[in-house]
Write a structure and sequence with these properties.
153 residues, mainly alpha
């Protein structure tokens, strides 16, 4: 689970940092631009930690986002204004909500102090990102329902 978590943190940054940069040029709202800056700053720090931990633990991590994540970035590249704003919030709030449970599970169970530190920092970052995305006023019930549908019962 620790290796999978390290990979997921790395891959999140590989698509969310480009998404944050796109928010600076494609968004119509200052709230979306602010959320994009939070993504850039938070994932820059997490990416650094993930790369350090990868090296220290001799665990290889990817240099590319998944095909699905790359598709999300492509969707964002092709959107502008209010359509970009909504797509940005929909994709990113769903992604953060889905990983939130995994972070808690890793943080609660890992025996590795480096992974525990990464999980703690990731938890704080993801909570910040969900807050700033929710502050845009664009999070929909459909997005929250999508996240809820992925939670094991």
């Amino acid at each position: 689970m620790d290796k999978t978590f390290l990979t997921k943190v790395r891959q999140a940054g590989l698509w969310e940092m480009p998404a944050g940069r796109l928010a600076q040029t494609h968004a119509s709202s200052e709230a979306i631009k602010r959320a994009g800056m939070h993504l850039l700053e938070g994932h820059s720090k997490l990416d650094q930690l993930a790369r350090e931990d990868s090296e220290a633990l001799s665990v290889p991590i990817p240099d590319q986002a998944t095909a699905e994540q790359q598709g999300w970035v492509d969707q964002l590249k092709n959107a502008r204004g209010k359509a970009f704003d909504q797509l940005f919030v929909d994709l990113l709030r769903a992604s953060h909500g889905k990983i939130f449970i995994t972070i808690g599970e890793v943080r609660a169970t890992t025996k590795n102090t480096l992974i525990r530190r990464l999980a703690t920092q990731t938890n704080n970052t993801v909570q910040d990102h969900m807050d700033v995305l929710e502050d845009t006023g664009l999070v929909t019930e459909a997005t929250l329902d999508d996240v809820a549908s992925t939670i094991p019962k």
